[in-house]
Design goal:
With 505 residues, the chain is an alpha+beta fold. It contains 16 helices and 21 strands. Bound molecules: flavin-adenine dinucleotide. Residues 17-22, 43-45, 48-57, 168, 190-191, 222-224, 226, 228, 250, 252, 287, 319, 321, 338-340, 346, 349, 351-352, 355 line the site of flavin-adenine dinucleotide.
Length: 505
């Protein structure tokens, strides 16, 4: 134990689990607090293993890597990663539809009015260019091009939003080296018992199979779906969201690459769910997320294997889940992160982000040994709100469809939707307005992209867009397209950038 003048300071932290969540938490804590602040121990069991399928991310992960001080090129090399500019959705609104939900924004807001208002006005004036032509990220993704932002003044090339695809096992290993190199102690072993303090029910210690007991002031539960501490020991409870997100199984399979890696994740809607395609340097990660009410495991496996770019490199790996969240993410002296805290399918690649966001909020409200309930309540409220907003955005993808070719699509198209989503629809329906609630993860650009990509169109445009007359509106839209076209011409292919980021840029 470390000595310190303040008797109440947290002096020991035990992280249970060494998947992506556990090693992200260990890395961030040791980086921010330093090894002198508290003893940090991570317990993982090789016998149990990790889920290891989180391979697609969103741009916020770059903040996490920056916090750790990681070099991007070294990170991409170590994780056999590729770059990502958005997600392509195939067959979602209707069979045959295809759109990209890009990172970043469309065009540029003008005269204080959002770009999408002018885009809608342009449509009304007869303009027919697709929305993707107004996003450098969407245009580059479709063209297989990529580069990082450069210093180019007001050019969109100065503000390219990107994320990564990476091998989840290699990412955990990379972070493990980072954390243990800075003083985190790794213990290998299976936890077989959890002891609670008699007076207040806080977790006192965990016992490993070899009989050793490890005590701590603060426990971070990263034990995966089982939620060893948050549920197993503290019985916190789970809020089931499968009435809105009924998919409850996945099959994951890697396959050989075919052609250069695309700088986007692909999500293709299938008869009872959707299939992901995540290109890495050495293989493609694939999976079918489906609802067991509407397809058998065998039929799902057939669908998945029939829709791979290359030869499968393993047998499909089954995963089961129930979409939802813990009733509390922080209960007494246990904070749950990752799959232990809840699960939403990876349709918008949000799980790793939620781990990162949970860590950031924990650090912002880092406790002492008094564990102030006010701070714990705030943490639970804020994390809960983030979950709900992301859930509503994912539900949008299923519900905004005219597909009626299977029982699954009939079910999600006609289901009762959450109130927050209903309000978004109602406001959008009139004049295409979208409001970002509080610190909601997905911006108005994201909502606009998915809503229109899935054929939800408002009756009219925002009247404030009339601050520009018709001629000027069309001229400015054309100007945005030309700027993006010029920028696109300066970008190397994704493959060339991966080969040599310095030369390619
Ligand atoms: P796990 O990886 O399950 O790790 C749990 C750890 O706890 C392991 O180390 C295990 O050994 C340890 N443990 C458990 N019990 C014990 C015990 N008794 N004793 C000792 N140790 C124990 N996220 C994204 O951001 N993007 C994606 O594209 C994406 N795709 C996904 C696809 C699917 C089908 C699924 C299911 C998830 C996906 N995710 C994705 C989520 C992502 O995989 C997880 O958020 C991430 O892997 C974190 O997992 P974890 O660390 O919480 O749990």
């Amino acid at each position: 134990m470390k000595s310190d003048a303040r008797p109440n300071r947290i002096r020991s932290v035990v992280i249970v689990g060494g998947g992506t969540a556990g090693w992200m938490a260990a890395s961030a804590l040791v980086k921010v607090l330093g090894a002198q602040y508290a003893d940090i121990t991570l317990i993982e069991s090789d016998e149990i293993g990790i889920v290891g399928v989180g391979e697609a991310t969103i741009p916020q992960i770059r903040l996490f890597n920056d916090l750790l001080g990681l070099n991007e090129d070294a990170f991409i090399k170590a994780t056999k990663g590729t770059y990502k500019l958005g997600i392509q959705f195939v067959d979602w609104g209707r069979l045959g539809d295809r759109y990209i939900h890009p990172f970043g924004r469309y065009g540029i807001d003008m005269e204080g009015v959002s770009f999408h208002a002018f885009y809608l006005k342009g449509l009304q004036l007869g303009e027919t260019t697709p929305l993707s032509a107004y996003s450098l990220e969407a245009s580059a993704a479709a063209a297989g091009r990529f580069m990082r932002s450069i210093n180019a003044g007001k050019s969109p090339l100065s503000n390219i939003h990107h994320a990564y695809h990476f091998d989840a096992g290699l990412y955990s290993g990379f972070l493990r080296t980072f954390a243990t190199g800075r003083g985190v102690v790794r213990r290998e072993g299976k936890i077989v018992d959890v002891a609670l303090r008699a007076d207040d029910g806080f977790v006192e210690s965990v016992t490993l199979e070899d009989g050793s007991s490890i005590a701590a002031d603060l426990f971070i539960d990263c034990s995966g779906f089982r939620g060893l501490l948050i549920e197993g020991a503290l019985q916190t409870g789970y809020e089931d969201w499968s009435n809105w997100l009924p998919c409850n199984r996945a099959l994951a399979v890697p396959c050989e690459s075919a052609g250069p890696p695309t700088p986007f994740t692909r999500s293709t809607a299938r008869s009872a769910g959707w299939q992901w395609r995540i290109p890495l340097q050495h293989r493609i990660g694939n999976g079918y997320v489906y609802c067991s009410d509407h397809i058998t495991d065998a039929a799902a496996a057939d669908t998945l294997l029939a829709n791979l770019d290359g030869k499968p490199l393993a047998d499909p790996r089954p995963l089961r889940f129930v979409t939802g969240r813990r009733r509390k993410f922080w209960n007494r002296n246990v904070v749950a992160l990752g799959l232990a805290s809840g699960f939403m399918e990876p349709l918008e690649s949000t799980s790793i982000h939620l781990v990162q966001s949970g860590i950031a909020k924990l650090l912002a409200m880092f406790p002492d040994r008094s564990f102030d309930p006010v701070e714990i309540d705030r943490y639970n409220r804020v994390v809960g709100e983030e979950y709900v907003r992301i859930r509503d955005f994912i539900v949008l993808h299923y519900n905004a469809t005219s597909r009626d070719d299977s029982d699954f699509w009939n079910r999600v198209r006609t289901m009762e939707i959450p109130d927050g989503l209903r309000e978004k629809y109602e406001i959008f329906r009139n004049r295409g307005r979208i409001f970002r609630e509080n610190d909601e993860l997905f911006s108005d650009t994201s909502w606009f992209s998915v809503m229109t990509g899935q054929n939800l169109w408002p009756r009219s445009y925002d009247p404030v867009a009339d601050v520009l007359d018709d001629e000027e509106t069309l001229k400015r839209l054309q100007n945005v397209r030309e700027v993006i076209g010029t920028c696109l011409g300066q970008m190397p292919t994704h493959e060339a950038f991966l080969d040599n980021p310095l030369r390619a840029a």
